[in-house]
Amino acid sequence: MSVAEPHRPTAQHHAASAAQRALLAQLKARPRQPGEAGFFYIDNHFGRVAVKVLPGEYFVTGEDMLITTVLGSCIAACLWDGQARIGGMNHFMLPEGEQGDASGRYGSYAMELLINQMLKLGARRERLQAKIFGGGQVMHNFTTMNVGERNTRFVHEYLRTEHIPIVADDVLDIYPRKVAFFPMTGKAMVKRLAHAHPETLEAQETRGNAALLAKTAAGGSIDLF
């Protein structure tokens, strides 16, 4: 009876792993702009170098990597220039802050940061496309106007004013979401998490207690994972 040879990684696997380690080291070592995400890691699910965008942060790149975030009532806008193969994501918490409050926590400034960095890296405004996520009603007994609805309405109005088409979205409803965006290809993937308060999103994701759903909009696609 023959015995199968144990699987050994090929030279290609070694090269890919080395390339990932080199990219990860490069990203961690480079200077960061104010508000730019800086939590870099290897995402084992997708097998790629990734960056996690936290509330108030953004990230833009032309590298073959992954941009991720976890959302409750917040919004993440993913922008992409398919010709330049540059993409980026932000993560804002409220539509507007106090006058003169330049913080990525607020939608108006977060969108400005994201667009300006896209253009700085070589994207063209007329080629930009958007995919938007979040705006969930995840807070129980919230008596004022729903934050997720306000954020969603803001980002729709902002992108319409800037003439940037929204080619796909997954917004509103009651679910927190985890989003994975591939900036070179413009592909976006979303995982709707079981309902939880925003402060438990990361813990819930760690436990793997997730419900998988996805929605497609005309002109673009969002895949589940």
Automatic annotation (TrEMBL):
Its EC number is 3.5.1.44. It comes from the Bacteria. GO terms for molecular function: protein-glutamine glutaminase activity. CDD domains: CheD (cd16352). Gene3D superfamilies: 3.30.1330.200. It catalyses: L-glutaminyl-[protein] + H2O = L-glutamyl-[protein] + NH4(+). The keyword Ribosomal protein does not apply. Belongs to the CheD family. Pfam families: CheD. It comes from Extensimonas vulgaris. Keywords: Chemotaxis, Hydrolase. GO terms for biological process: chemotaxis. This is Probable chemoreceptor glutamine deamidase CheD. InterPro entries: CheD-like_sf (IPR038592), Chemorcpt_Glu_NH3ase_CheD (IPR005659), Cytotoxic_necrot_fac-like_cat (IPR011324). Probably deamidates glutamine residues to glutamate on methyl-accepting chemotaxis receptors (MCPs), playing an important role in chemotaxis. The keyword S-adenosyl-L-methionine does not apply. SUPFAM superfamilies: CNF1/YfiH-like putative cysteine hydrolases.
